[in-house]
Specification:
The chain has helices at 3-41, 53-58, 65-75, 82-91, 102-116, 136-142, 151-159, and strands spanning 119-123, 129-133. It is mostly helical and 171 residues long.
């Protein structure tokens, strides 16, 4: 057993995998853009939909409340409550602390964001609710294929996702 040769081969394999991962990530990013573009053209898409995180970054003067909520949720590594969202908005001066009906507006914006698929509501055992941001990649993966009654959607609904076959040669 030649240790140096084994080490060089292992390092070369690791480098090749790293390059493959980078290429896959670039392809995934491109496919997310394609999917989002096609959704705009699809009848389900609407120009009145809630803005994406990229749209929020482009808003400079006065971002909307849904945009501010997405900004809060996208920065959180875990789901948070409406009270935490309100407190974060006030603490970071995204809204005025004395804003009338702020909690009602937060709930209304969250309901619209959930309907648009940008936010997920999680119910806890004590019946409280937490919210988390759903990024473009996750939305793309959750979206149905083509028409609702297509063969692909019927199979996904009845049997779940098909496992990916590993076609690599075994050593």
């Amino acid at each position: 057993m030649d240790i140096k040769r084994e080490l060089q081969e292992a390092e070369a394999n690791l480098l090749a995998l790293e390059q493959q991962r980078a290429a896959i990530e670039r392809q995934m990013h491109a496919w997310v853009k394609v999917i989002e573009g096609l959704r705009v053209l699809d009848e389900r898409g609407s120009f009145d939909d809630v803005p994406t995180r990229e749209d929020i970054a482009m808003e400079r003067d006065t971002p909307s409340l849904p945009s501010k909520i997405i900004a809060v949720l996208s920065q959180m590594p875990y789901p948070i409550s409406t009270t935490q969202i309100r407190d974060w908005l006030i603490m970071n001066r995204a809204v005025e602390s004395g804003a009338n009906n702020l909690m009602i507006n937060v709930h209304t914006a969250l309901r619209r964001l959930i309907k648009a698929g940008h936010v997920e509501e999680l119910r806890m055992e004590d019946e409280s609710k937490l919210y988390r941001y759903i990024g473009p990649m996750e939305r793309a993966l959750k979206a149905p294929y083509g028409a609702r009654t297509s063969l692909a959607n019927t199979l996904m609904h009845n049997f779940g996702p098909t496992p990916v076959l590993d076609t690599r040669k075994k050593r």
